[in-house]
Amino acid sequence: MSDGAPRVIVVGSCNRDHVWRVDRFPHTGETRLGHDFSTGPGGKGFNQAVACHRQGANTLFLGAIGNDALGAGAREDATNESLACRWQEFDDQATASTAVWVDDKGNNCIVVNPGANAHLDAAFVRAQRDAFADARLLLVQLEANLDAVAAAMELAHEHGLLRALNPAPVHAELTLGLLRAADLVTPNENEFAQLCGRFLDVDVDAAALVPMSDATLHALARRLLPQGTVAITLGAQGCFVSHDERQRRGDAASCYRLPAERANVVDTTGAGDCFCGALAAAILRFEGRPFEDAVRHANRAAALSTETPGAASAMPRYDEVIARFGS
Question: Given this model, what pLDDT does residue 2 score?
Answer without folding.
Answer: 43
